[in-house]
Amino acid sequence: MATISTAQFKTGLTIEVDNAIWRIINFQHVKPGKGGAFVRTKLKNLRTGAVQDKTFRAGAKMEQAQIDTSNMQYLYEDGAGYVFMDMESYEQITVPGDKIQDALNYLQENMDVSIVQYQNEVIGIEVPNTVTLEVSETEPSIKGNTASGGSKPATMTTGLIVQVPFFVNAGDKLVINTSDASYISRA
Length: 187
Known about the structure:
This protein has strands at 3-5, 14-17, 20-30, 38-45, 51-57, 61-64, 67-78, 81-86, 92-95, 112-118, 121-126, 130-138, 151-156, 161-165, 173-177, 182-186. It is an all-beta fold. It has a 6-stranded antiparallel beta sheet, with no helix packed on it. The chain has a 5-stranded antiparallel beta sheet with strand order 9-8-7-10-11, with no helix packed on it. The chain has a 5-stranded antiparallel beta sheet with strand order 14-13-12-15-16, with no helix packed on it. The radius of gyration is 21 Å and the shape is flat.
């Protein structure tokens, strides 16, 4: 593994600290008037999803975690987890649901995703930035309500609840932003 110092920090970099794998969300070099410089960071644990603030001395060294991503296609859910297939080698892997909890609201059969691995351990999946989901249930539209520009909750077929405009009805297909679970447009 490569050793890096705090001077090489950048957003999105993955490091290994305290036997955990962390992705740097935010960092700031601080040089106080008195005392030594330090680096304030906000880190996300890639195994648990927890976000933590951590401070390092300037110049401190740590291991850079080598994260591998591979493009795979989601096939189906079985009793043990979720089955994905590598599109080049046709190998299939089963990922437990607790490893991909955040992405389950967007996962659809035959969807292409990126599997994130650390030393052959699956630590998560990355879904596309936008997905098209069907509305399974929402309140019916009331004539005249659509002009005011408000919103109402709608439940998608995957179980995700999204705030949508009044004109959206059950059965509509919508484009959803996966980073913040927001409505973008009709499909």
